[in-house]
What we know:
Blueprint: E1 2-5, H1 10-21, E2 27-30, H2 38-48, H3 61-66, H4 78-87, E3 96-98, E4 104-106, H5 110-117
Parallel strand pairs: 1-2
Antiparallel strand pairs: 1-3, 3-4
Amino acid sequence: MEIWINPACSKCRSAIDLLDGAGAEYTVRRYLEDVPGEAEIREVLERLGLEPWDITRTQEPEAAELGLADWARSAASRDRWIAALAGHPRLIQRPIITAQDGTAVVARTEEAVRDALGR
């Protein structure tokens, strides 16, 4: 199990606390420092069952700078969104936990973290 975090994020710290409390074995990835590439983002999206715009933090200043609000949310624009996430990792929703069964969850709630633990 791996958890993508931003240490400054309270949701990330809460998820870590829950994992620790459950005695889970996991690896911490500070994704702002160890930035995932496009292929890795595609893999995580497949594991999540989501599209790139579903895990994009659209309220970040970088999203406004890129004009994400005007980008199409379609199969034709998927690569553009993935490139934006790889180029601007602050836009990636957090925390993301990749579970042992090959799935993943955006672990912003206690329920999502527990779901990942149960996989």
